[in-house]
Amino acid sequence: MKKLLLCILLLVATSMANAACNELYNHELTTLQGEKINLCDHQDKVILVVNTASKCGFTPQFDALEGLYSKYKDKGLLVLGFPSNDFRQEPGNDKQIGDFCKLTYAVKFPMMAKSSVTGANANPLYKQLLAKTGDAPQWNFYKYLILPGGKQVYAYGSMTQPDSSDIVGKIKANLK
């Protein structure tokens, strides 16, 4: 009887947690290594979402992305990379992409499984980011900055460096 009651309480708690999750965060993502990330668990953080490609002129932005992540992750910043071949510059599979990111740029922030970020086949998070901002990625290393609770979402083009004063200022102003 105690086990049944515990199971019921767990189901109710899970249901309540999901109900309290902002729609923008209601996604379970999969990393390049197959690990699951539930965005609902991170809705209190500043999240920088970036579509990436290993064969792009903007690929050196991985350094700045990793720098931001290592500097602010313990204060409430989450950087999420989304490898995509939408612009024909990410030919690798998940393992190849993971190896490249780790060996070339020492990336430690979560990199999601390769997916589409534009058009009808865009992954669900990117569809919501488009709906929130009206801006779809025009190229690789397009950035979305999501403030805690999804209260505001900003879009930045590929030319904007991840450690630009605008992005860093918004991050710092919204950290825990």
Briefly note the structural class of the backbone.
alpha+beta
- Strand line-up in the sheet with most strands: 4-3-5-6
Helical residues, percent: 25-40%
CATH-defined topology: Glutaredoxin
Q: What does the main sheet amount to?
A: 4 strands, mixed
Q: Report mean pLDDT, rounded to a whole number.
A: 91
Q: Please report the number of helical segments.
A: 5
Instruction: Indicate the radius of gyration in whole angstroms.
Output: 17 Å
Structural shape: globular
Number of beta-strand segments: 6
Name of the CATH class: Alpha Beta
- The CATH superfamily bears the name Glutaredoxin
Strand content: 15-25%
CATH-level-2 architecture: 3-Layer(aba) Sandwich
| Unreliable residue runs | 9-18
Order of helices and strands: HEEEHEHHEEH
State the domain count: 1
Distance N terminus to C terminus? Answer: 42 Å
